[in-house]
Write a structure and sequence with these properties.
With 578 residues, the protein is mainly alpha-helical. Among the domains are: 135 residues, no CATH class; 167 residues, no CATH class. Helix content is 54%, strand content 3%. It has 28 helices and six strands. The strands form three sheets. The chain has a two-stranded antiparallel sheet. A hairpin with a 6-residue loop joins strand 1 and strand 2.
Length: 578
């Protein structure tokens, strides 16, 4: 199918998909007994579509054996589900997923630290592997300086490759011939037989394009070394994070845990490419979001509030009581009260934009969180409460007095107020219902979920169970009513086709094209849970192109059983819905 015909089909698909959404009105609350229901088979399909990233071959038979109730209870208690050994094998090479930020900074240093090493302002790494990589980037840095470029930040591009002929002289004649003229597979086999130092010497001497050509046939360890030289150490941290998310969505048996981790990360969004967050987002998702998705909303809210990743992203680490940083000679202070976190805490995390707060409440909440900051940011960062810069005055939040001199308890009190506010129960329940039920969930469902949320002190598992047990979840108006996000579409396509993903970087690049670069939503809103927000003709054309590439095995690193009908299935309008 050529590009012009794809474009025409995409416009038709857009019209087909857009019309019911545009015409659909919010479902009016109706008594539970009057809610019509979909068929028994459709109910199982609904569960697979909403509680997972899509059905794999054989999943429908497995859910029939468990029954709807058994499947829901099993997924809501993921500790009872043995994890897929294939997932564990895929995640094993991605070592930064198991590291602390302080460890990542040491082993995968950012370009600023490499420049400092080159200038003699910071010691070189002691780890031999890291030193091999860093030394090459220092050499590139110094080469750019010698070319007259002032303090270059980019050490990965525009560097003339070393004399490959000279470097390859260390090889035996037969090996040299293979390295200079062999196939990628032959070159990889040769490299795999050499020491790490020789590998780096030869890879670093190769032109960028030829080095990248080896990637598809290399072992995970050699691929990682190619990655280090192509994009730099810091980029490996970000690639591990994105690949890990994709692997979990496709291979994990604990599907709703992955769906909820994605949901709550977007709810408490942090933008990966903001400075130090490049090293803190991994632990933010792993240690702050993931452990709390079935627990208490209060615990989740507090964990995000004290997360260095969130404190840095929304600038609360720089927020101090007015007048703390007075400067002599009438100069403006370098820091002051920052309201970013206070505003997003109420608008996006708890009450919602219509939750009844005022601008004065935003200011008062910001005062309560002064001093919630980060210690040792450059080496990874940990939460710290700095009493010295905290606003110790009396505050009033949503009409409630918070006495003076409360210290860290001021922020804790705000969290308690917000968690128990009726608007939070409504907003959280509606957000979950938009993701799992429909873009316009009925008020009757939201009220029932909010009642459970309030009664259980914000128990997220109980709130979810109320939603899945509701007749509204199985209403015809909810069935196949949502458009998948690009990530959901890709994960479901990979699951449906039983794809074998050797490495995921090309899939991650496809997601960029599809409009959902992972962890890179700049705004604190996170990516939308409303399917209608993902509906436009350009995105549908990109989805069709992905379907063709996947079904014809033209996505490097990913293999599927090639069948002509696959492209029609995963590129068609019905597959875009769930």
């Amino acid at each position: 199918m050529n590009r012009s015909s794809n474009s025409a089909v995409a416009l038709v698909l857009y019209a087909v998909l857009a019309s019911p959404i545009a015409a659909k009105k919010p479902i009016k609350p109706i008594p539970t007994a009057q809610v019509p229901q979909i068929t028994a088979d459709q109910k199982l399909d609904q569960l697979l579509n909403r509680l997972t990233f899509g059905a794999r071959p054989g999943d429908l038979d497995r859910i029939r054996q468990l029954g709807a109730e058994g499947f829901i209870n099993q997924q809501l208690h993921p500790e009872s589900i043995p994890e897929n050994p294939a997932l564990e094998a895929k995640l094993a090479p991605l070592e930064t997923l198991r590291m602390l930020p302080s460890e990542m900074v040491i082993k995968y240093p950012p370009s600023q630290q490499i420049r400092a090493m080159a200038k003699g302002n910071q010691p070189y790494p002691t780890d031999p592997e890291t030193l091999r990589v860093v030394q090459r980037f220092i050499d590139r840095y110094k080469a750019k300086l010698a070319q007259g470029k002032p303090d270059p930040d980019n050490m990965t591009d525009d560097r003339p490759p070393a004399d490959l002929e000279k470097v390859s002289q260390t090889l035996a004649p037969a090996d040299r011939q293979i390295f200079q003229g062999g196939t990628p597979a032959q070159k990889v086999a040769l490299l795999e037989s050499l020491s790490a130092t020789q590998q780096y010497d030869l890879l670093d001497a190769m032109p960028r394009g030829k080095r990248q050509a080896l990637y598809t046939v290399a072992s995970p360890q050699l691929r990682r070394r190619i990655q280090l030289l192509q994009g730099g150490p810091q980029q490996v941290v970000n690639s591990d994070l994105a690949e890990g998310k994709l692997f979990r969505a496709v291979y994990s048996n604990r599907q709703i845990e992955e769906v909820l981790t994605d949901f709550w990360y977007n709810h408490f969004n942090v933008f990966l490419d903001k400075g130090a967050d490049r090293y803190m987002v991994t632990t933010y998702e792993r240690d702050v979001i993931r452990p709390h998705v079935f627990g208490s909303f209060k615990d989740l809210l507090l964990a995000t509030a004290q997360s260095p990743a969130m404190l840095f992203y929304l600038d609360n680490s720089q927020s101090v009581a007015p007048g703390i940083d007075r400067k002599p000679n009438g100069k403006k202070p370098t820091r002051g009260l920052n309201e970013n976190y206070g505003r997003e805490l109420m608008e996006l995390h708890t009450l919602g934009v219509d939750g009844g707060y005022t601008q004065q409440d935003v200011t008062e909440v910001a005062r309560c969180f002064t001093g919630w900051t980060i210690k040792e940011l450059r080496s990874g960062g940990v939460f710290q409460f700095n009493e010295r810069v905290h606003d110790q005055g009396e505050k009033t939040v949503l009409g409630l007095k918070i006495p003076a001199n409360g210290g860290i308890n001021d922020g804790l009190k705000v969290i308690d107020i917000l968690v128990h506010h009726p608007a939070t129960a409504q907003f959280v329940s509606k957000s979950l219902a938009i993701r799992f039920v429909s873009d316009n969930p009925p008020a009757s469902l939201i009220d029932r979920m909010a009642a459970t949320f309030t009664r259980t002190e914000g128990d997220l598992r109980a709130t979810m169970k109320t939603m899945f047990d509701s007749p509204e979840f199985y209403a015809p108006a909810s069935y196949q009513s949502k458009i998948k996000s690009p990530f959901e579409m890709m994960a479901s396509a990979l699951r449906l086709t039983g794809a074998d993903i050797d490495y995921g970087l090309n899939l991650i690049q496809q997601l960029n094209t599809l409009g959902e670069p992972l962890y890179r939503k700049v705004e604190p809103t996170g990516y939308s849970n409303k399917g209608s927000d993902w509906l436009n003709s350009a995105s549908l054309l990109a989805r069709m192109n992905f379907a063709v590439a996947l079904s014809s095995n033209k996505v490097p690193g990913t293999k599927v059983e090639a069948k002509p009908e696959i492209a029609q299935t995963i590129g068609g309008p019905n597959f875009q819905k769930h």
